[in-house]
Amino acid sequence: MPHSRQLHLGAFMRPVSLHTGAWRFPGAYPDANFNFKHLKRFVQTLEKACFDAFFMADHLAVLNMPVDALKRSHTATSFEPFTLLSALASVTERIGLIATASTTFDEPYHIARRFASLDHLSEGRAGWNLVTTSNPDAARNFGREEHMEHDERYRRAREFYDVVTGLWDSWADDAFVRDTDAGLFFDPSKLHVLDHKGKYLSVRGPLNIARPVQGWPVVVQAGSSEAGKQLAAETADAVFTAQSNLAAGKRFYADVKGRMEQLGRERDHLKILPGAFVVVGDTRDQALEKRALLDTFVHYESGIASLSIALGHDVSPFDPDGPLPEIPETNASRSSRERVIELARAERLTIRELAQRVGGYSGLQMVGTAVEIADEMEQWLVEEGSDGFNVMFPYLPEGLDDFVGKVVPELQRRGIFRRAYEGATLRDHFGLPRPGNRFFEGR
Amino acid sequence: MPHSRQLHLGAFMRPVSLHTGAWRFPGAYPDANFNFKHLKRFVQTLEKACFDAFFMADHLAVLNMPVDALKRSHTATSFEPFTLLSALASVTERIGLIATASTTFDEPYHIARRFASLDHLSEGRAGWNLVTTSNPDAARNFGREEHMEHDERYRRAREFYDVVTGLWDSWADDAFVRDTDAGLFFDPSKLHVLDHKGKYLSVRGPLNIARPVQGWPVVVQAGSSEAGKQLAAETADAVFTAQSNLAAGKRFYADVKGRMEQLGRERDHLKILPGAFVVVGDTRDQALEKRALLDTFVHYESGIASLSIALGHDVSPFDPDGPLPEIPETNASRSSRERVIELARAERLTIRELAQRVGGYSGLQMVGTAVEIADEMEQWLVEEGSDGFNVMFPYLPEGLDDFVGKVVPELQRRGIFRRAYEGATLRDHFGLPRPGNRFFEGR
């Protein structure tokens, strides 16, 4: 008998791994950014393991780092998400495919159309990671010197979402009758012209593509600000979030699900999936050694730049092999600064070790045997810290193969993760209802 | 021994066919707009026949027609090009994949990135059909009530092209050294920041994707105005054009190639491919019967609306079975109006017949046996009317299978069309050089 609650697993990836040193790890594929064969193999492996979804990290600029740091990492370039996920759609059958698209730097007609098209191509497996794009370097790639202010970005995002979902509802599900004898291809009473004129957007419609297979592709969000959490509670089907420990995860979970209840939405209709960086070993010590080895591949130039950014303070003048001195308050994000200082203290790290950890990956990690990792994931599920995880593999292909070969079977043995896909669409995998068409059925 | 000059063949398609009555033709797939399996089969068949490229028609709006006409046709909706072509990239190996993207309603950073990504995914088979988008309904889907004026659109297009190609050159071809021992992923001296600030566009760069496999994806244009022909002569690798007969084709060919010579470009470095609607029969009469049968599937409501649009005059009050009366001069495009009136006179068509012809397809057609069609294509090639054709199949799958099974072998027998791909990329198929990187090699 399976548990009543089941884990949901997404894979949050870059082609070479999210960890900036991973391209130098033994067995890595340093050329994976532009080698589709590797991506195809990864995603087909995830599908065999019944993952809910594959999600490719994305940015609209080369990452904002000093070039002496940037040149040490594989993360500056890779495939564009719509093209990559569409290519993967035709070599997979069941796994969900989630792409990031920005409400600040793209047009709702394009976004609605591309996700609808990906949803048709994949027969109902598309997801939209709706981001407002906080990176000021992106603004300069799109004709703007000044980046839009945070709350304004969120107000535009809310309107953008209404327009995109309204465009998805341009056609009733049964609009296309294709009656060859009568010569009637569609029923014009089942076509809706949106004619939206709002504060930020003016979009006439209708969309030139049939309603998506899922009604609406799955909408994912990742904001953790007040505006971000409220937008998610109002509109998201899933939230990808960074939570550094179970206690923080539980607070976030209760917060967002509580907001949903206040809005009259069912708690189950949004899945909360924190990112988890998972390093599997045959023993706990072996897993710890792998993580330590991985961090040695973060070049010091790259790590110290990342650390300085996280602290909002140039720490390169200090002795790399000494402890982190007191750092004054700065304009850097307070949560990132405090998290890094706390990490240095808790693990008594030198500046070099801290730089390599932060430059590699320093969020929530699970390091241990398959049983230990399954224990931890189950605890998050049972204690309502999450509905599953967005798993990050530390190095590829080994980290992915370890997770799929060792952790997934342990989760399945415990009855908290599927052994086979039960449904066909990403909404099915996440246990989400198919939205009604607001113009033809109400919602 | 093959001829020195070879035909180049693109397939210009909609999923159900470009002909608005084709969804009712015996054996058609009326559901092909959203059935990827059909598209996959079509493109794999074209690849077996060694076609240079597959090109999907596109619009950024539901076509501007009265709904009583629109509802009679399959052409209102279909897949979005980037997602479709990317999905096709992973189920094909050699055929070129050409997508339309608008310089008026999209951002150069997105366009550069998506085509670069498609080029990497397909290992060098991407092509960009650069359009300025003349449809005013598209403007209303992108927040603009007033459409940009024609010459202004072309000036923006020229700057847009410079920005996109500049972004493609962000990285030298050998920028990514991936030296795992030294921890150096790329050579920063091989990264160029565009920092473009022009009249219409401001784009910093660099592009967050490696230089395309082809250097630059193939750039296709279709404009036939003075500004369009000049832009093509300056920038295009191929031109898709509508030419109603060989004499017109020869004038266009000489005009564009002449402009190239004046600009110091080699004539061979741009391929001119007029659209040709090809109906193959075992006899000429059978082919004519097929074309006539196809036109009967154009519903009168749809045909009369198309005819009225083409003439710029509502002709629905006239007797459908009578001849076309004198039509006053109007605001409609003069060339389209004159072409239609000439067609009615030359073939003594009733209004109904004319409506069904114009509503279906009324441009250049080749109707006959495989030998007759090959004769006509060879004549265009030899007399410098074109470098090949953008073939339109009247109905699917039969029209495509007829062309591939009957006309292609005849062209191959004559030594004017390849029997096997010689190169790997779309540039190879078209016989085009790979552009040097303007920032690292000059051009």
TrEMBL record, chains A, B:
CDD domains membership: Nitrilotriacetate_monoxgenase
The keyword Lipid metabolism is assigned to this record: no
Keyword Endoplasmic reticulum: no
GO molecular function: monooxygenase activity; oxidoreductase activity, acting on paired donors, with incorporation or reduction of molecular oxygen
SUPFAM superfamilies registered for this protein in UniProt: Bacterial luciferase-like
Keywords: Flavoprotein, FMN, Monooxygenase, Oxidoreductase
PANTHER family linked: ALKANESULFONATE MONOOXYGENASE-RELATED (PTHR30011), C2H2 FINGER DOMAIN TRANSCRIPTION FACTOR (EUROFUNG)-RELATED (PTHR30011:SF16)
NCBIfam families: FMN_nitrolo
Protein name, per record: FMN-dependent oxidoreductase, nitrilotriacetate monooxygenase family
Organism, scientific name: Caballeronia arationis
Organism ancestry: Bacteria, Pseudomonadati, Pseudomonadota, Betaproteobacteria, Burkholderiales
